[in-house]
Amino acid sequence: MGSRHRNRSRLRLRVVSIVLLVLAGACTAPPQEARTTPGAGDSLGSGDAQGAKPAGLEVVQPTRWVCRPGPVDNPCVRGLDAELLPIAGGSRAERFVPAEYPAVDCFYVYPTVSDAPGANAPRRSTARIEATVRAQAGRFAETCRLYAPVYRQATAASLRSGDYFAPEVLELVDRDVRSAWHDYLKEDNDGRGVVLIGHSQGSMALQRLLGSEITQHPEQRARIVSALLIGGNVPAGTTENGLVPCESPGQLGCVVAYSAFATPPPSTAFFGRSGVGPALCTDPTLLTDGPAGALHPYLPTEQLTGAGDLSGTGQAWPGVRADFIGYPGSLTARCRTADGFSWLDVDAVDRARTPPLDQPLGPQWGLHVADVNLALGDLVEVVRLQGEAWAAAG
After folding, report:
1. Mean pLDDT calculated for residue range 288-317
2. First to last CA, the chain
């Protein structure tokens, strides 16, 4: 490996610092008929009205979409190429190609990225929001039509002021996410299966949407292929939301959830446990056809994020034209449980040839800023296999 690649391998996992504010302060496919989703017990995706059209959907305001299939300038289907640095050495380019006719849709809610001064962000997209959506969710357009609404999220300022979980703040968050969900179901869904994807605040918002809305309406519940609720302290085991852990490739009606740590979480850690005990940990490598325990990170570069203050890499990577640096098989992962916590334990195969597993905000936060990108290749593959299973069940 040349010096340029050695420099890149020193990439810090703060690369996802477009998400750091929460801690510090597709192409259109033809409509398809509704499918019967095989679920596990009473899990998501099961219900008595799989073919029924959702009723009583209230869109309280026009949805503003960061990404939605159709627009020529859709930022989630372009500019997502990667340069892969395999653990065995060398490098190769990987061109991003969105799926032409994906079997399912993805509905994604982004984490806290707003640096607006108030407790709730304005309901408009920004370069920072777009960069976050592209970095975390864009590559899912390889396997699904991607929908990402703008919402009045709780800001970093509310986190610092202590208002992050204030009822009046969460009311606006939930109002916007629910309205966008209703808009999607009315205007875009056409009976298609949907994968819910969220990280951190986005994961928590989707958990509330599941509990208060989706699981209360069988015709909505029947649309759910799976839920990827990363970094949101989902309770372990089956919950009142009908969430059961995904346990095998292609399983439907289940949830993938974890919080990543490079060291065991301390007793004061913010992630890895819920209000009722250890949080759910799902090892995404066990849900693909690849080697168990081998992660496939995709870390965004300044080529994708734009300004240096968004990339968080600490270097400009002169000459790099790729939007992601991929490290296939460079990290290992396994779920661990101890002292009331459950977490995805991440380690390096060869520390001289892989990105350092920094925990820049300390052990309380673990690898939260990089939760999604550490396993992005694996998560995309999980959704691909679930989409194939959904299509086969139709």
Report:
1. 70
2. 47
